[in-house]
Amino acid sequence: MGLLRDLQALDHYIDRLRREVAELDAGELLRERIEQTRQRMQEIKQRYEEMHARATEQELRLQEFDERIRRTEADLYSGRITNPRELQLLQHEIEQAKQAREQMDVEMLHIWEQMETMKQDIDKAERDMRHLERVYEAHMEDFRQRKAALEAEIAFHLRERAELAQQIDPDALARYEQLRQRLGGTAIAVVEQKACSVCHTLLTPYILKRLQNEDALIACESCGRLLYDPMLAQA
Ligand SMILES: [Zn+2]
């Protein structure tokens, strides 16, 4: 029974190591953040491209406008038009065109400003991205090391367990394994103040007597776990 108890202690320890492995942070959150940053960057880049297309278009419009103003002015000063009324109209037209041209310049400036801000955003996103990737690499290196260390420790204790299991009576071992599976990892309970240490049910005098006198595996009548009395083991 003492060996079974040692086995359970070892099993509990191995279970704990396995839980630690399962709980290791495999970097999912970091990967998510990297993905979000990448998406944000792509969005900004796309908007930048759109803005760039708009700027090119505006530039073309400006050129056409300038060309029109030049032509009208050439007309005006060509001396071909002599009618004062017509000349006045032309002058008015040029003035209006120049005003519109100024407005277009303001718009253009605004577009350039927006593009500059976007460029800064893209640069920042790229820096964030590189930083996150470095953090992720370091994290994963650490994760792999921890995982390998835990797995090596598990492998070591599994060998230890196999050796211990060999010393245990096969029937007792089989019963232990069954109970462990059925009862969530704990097959053995300790007698503590005449009660089962796991389910806390008070043990009957009959069970206590059997524990004292018999060399058999005796189970808690309530939860079914095999009972181990450390007081008896000492005697
Ligand atoms: Zn019990």
Describe the fold and architecture.
By secondary structure, the chain is mainly alpha-helical. It folds into two domains: 2-166, Helix Hairpins, CATH 1.10.287.1490; 170-234, no CATH class. It is built from six helices and three strands; from the N terminus they run ααααββαβα. The protein has helices at 2-23, 28-77, 84-166, 170-182, 205-213, 230-234; strands at residues 188-192, 195-196, 226-228. The chain has a three-stranded mixed sheet with strand order 2-1-3. It is rod-shaped. The model has no long low-confidence stretch (mean pLDDT 93). Residues 189, 196, 198-199, 201, 220, 222-223, 225 line the site of zinc ion.
Oligomeric state as shown:
single chain
Largest sheet features: 3 strands, mixed
Sheet/helix structural class: mainly alpha
Beta strand %: under 5%
CATH class categorisation of the largest domain: Mainly Alpha
CATH topology assignment of the largest domain: Helix Hairpins
Q: Whole-number radius of gyration?
A: 42 Å
**How many domains, in number, for the residues?**
2
Distinct small-molecule ligands in the complex: zinc ion
Mean pLDDT across the residues is 93
Order of helices and strands: HHHHEEHEH
CATH architecture of the largest domain: Orthogonal Bundle
The separation of the N and C termini measures: 14 Å
| Count of helical regions | 6
What's the total number of strands?
A: 3
Helix content: over 70%
Spatial arrangement of strands, main beta sheet = 2-1-3
